[in-house]
Sequence to fold (106 residues):
Amino acid sequence: MGGELHKYPGELSGGEQQRVSVARALAKKPRVLFLDEPTGALDERTGRQVLDYVCKLKCRYGFTMVMVTHNLNLAEMAKTVIRMNRGGISDIYRNEVQKTAYEIGW
Fold:
């Protein structure tokens, strides 16, 4: 996104704004990173790149990631999955093996 450096937020596409939001959150070196639909405005290729990068940083820096999404495929990347329905917890399970952003369905 180096070519977009001098643009105002309103001049960026939705996907570019989404990537900037993730980058800003990561720049603060959080202990817990909250992500709300982090791939919602992204095409598949960019979404996978963002998820892959965030997961690599999670492993490197050891922060906890809490992600809210409607994309059930992303749950395959998580160690612990908490499913909600009608404002309550409907299921909690653990994945013995977590898939990468490039192994999940989209």
Notes: The mean pLDDT is 88. Residues 13-94 form a domain with the Rossmann fold fold (CATH 3.40.50.300). The radius of gyration is 15 Å.
